């Protein structure tokens, strides 16, 4: 392979790496730290995204997270489009720069690969790649979220709508493939939400997740000498012999008789 061919391959793959690094900026964590809020990975659903940041009660932080997560997907695609003539980027390179930014959000290298679900980032990618597709997908999300108040359900249905819209209205196979890859990854990242939706335990937009109930263990108080309680029986004896064990008798060698203290006259 000659030098020109190597350069032609180097430019697109460099663009993919840069888009991935841009997507790896987890703004839910960055914004929360800047505003001195709890780490979104440690409360609620544990997802570093705008919806979970909203559960902290800080709406400004949630809006900032939403806009910045969408912006990184938008910027990744827009830069690829801007430099497409200079570096000879085709439609495949531009589309998969968006996929790279989306994957960076899911598995951010700067945050131990613990990322979000990519809803806002995917929206930014679609708006930059094909504005009409992005607007139509956002309308589906908003409609479902308004009716059901389930952010996860809105994201799942909108992500399933996007590739269908691409097939119906655009003749761009590689673009359709890129959108389908993001849709499948987004639905996969919502598998826990899907389980909670089927069980009816999924929190709605603005609601805080119910904390897990801890089982309380009853503490047994020691009984005074001579007093018998059923909880003091050895269960293993009764299960082995089938007969209740002999109860200790006050005054026997095993249980000495309690006489109490005598006052001196």
Structure description:
The structure is a single chain. The protein is an all-alpha fold and 265 residues long. The chain has twelve helices and no strands. The chain has helices at 3-23, 27-34, 50-54, 59-82, 84-87, 91-106, 119-129, 131-148, 151-169, 173-189, 191-199, 235-241. The longest helix is centred in the first third of the chain and has 24 residues, at 59-82. It is globular, with a radius of gyration of 31 Å. Mean pLDDT is 82; it is low at 211-215, 235-239 and 261-265.
How would you concisely characterize the structure shown here?
This protein has 265 residues and is mainly alpha-helical.
List the helices and strands and how they pair.
Elements (H helix, E strand, L loop, with lengths): L2 H21 L3 H8 L15 H5 L4 H24 L1 H4 L3 H16 L12 H11 L1 H18 L2 H19 L3 H17 L1 H9 L35 H7 L24
Helix pairs in contact: 1-4, 1-6, 2-4, 4-6, 4-7, 6-7, 6-10, 7-8, 8-9, 9-10
Rg, rounded, reads: 31 Å
Task: Please identify the structural class as seen in this structure.
Answer: mainly alpha
Which term fits the overall shape? Answer: globular
Q: In percent, how much strand structure appears in the residues?
A: under 5%
Strand tally is 0
Overall pLDDT confidence: 82
* Major beta-sheet overview: none
Q: What is the string of helix and strand elements?
A: HHHHHHHHHHHH
Share of helix among residues? 55-70%
Flag low-confidence runs.
211-215, 235-239, 261-265
SS field, number of helical segments: 12
Rounded to the nearest angstrom, the distance between the terminal CA atoms is 114 Å
């Amino acid at each position: 392979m000659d030098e020109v061919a190597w350069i032609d391959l180097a430019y697109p793959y460099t663009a993919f790496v840069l888009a991935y690094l841009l997507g790896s900026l987890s703004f839910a964590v960055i914004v929360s730290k800047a505003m001195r809020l709890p780490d979104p990975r440690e409360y609620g659903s544990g997802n570093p995204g705008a919806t979970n940041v909203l559960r902290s009660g800080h709406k400004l932080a949630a809006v900032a997270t939403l806009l910045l997560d969408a912006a990184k997907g938008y910027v990744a695609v827009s830069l690829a489009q801007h430099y497409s003539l200079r570096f000879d980027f085709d439609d495949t390179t531009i589309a998969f720069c968006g996929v790279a930014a989306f994957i960076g959000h899911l598995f951010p290298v700067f945050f131990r690969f613990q990322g979000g679900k990519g809803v806002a980032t995917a929206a930014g990618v679609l708006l930059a790649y094909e504005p009409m597709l992005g607007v139509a997908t956002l309308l589906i999300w908003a409609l479902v979220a308004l009716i059901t108040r389930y952010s996860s359900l809105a994201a799942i249905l909108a992500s399933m709508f996007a590739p269908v819209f691409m097939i119906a209205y655009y003749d761009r196979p590689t673009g359709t493939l890129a959108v389908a890859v993001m849709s499948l990854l987004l639905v996969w990242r919502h598998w826990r939400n899907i389980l909670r939706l089927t069980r009816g335990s999924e929190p709605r937009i603005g609601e805080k997740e119910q904390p897990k109930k801890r089982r309380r263990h009853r503490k047994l108080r020691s009984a005074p000498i001579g007093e018998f309680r059923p909880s003091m029986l050895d269960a293993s004896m009764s299960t082995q012999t089938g007969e209740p064990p002999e109860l200790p008798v006050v005054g026997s060698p095993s249980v000495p008789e309690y006489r109490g203290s005598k006052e001196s006259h």
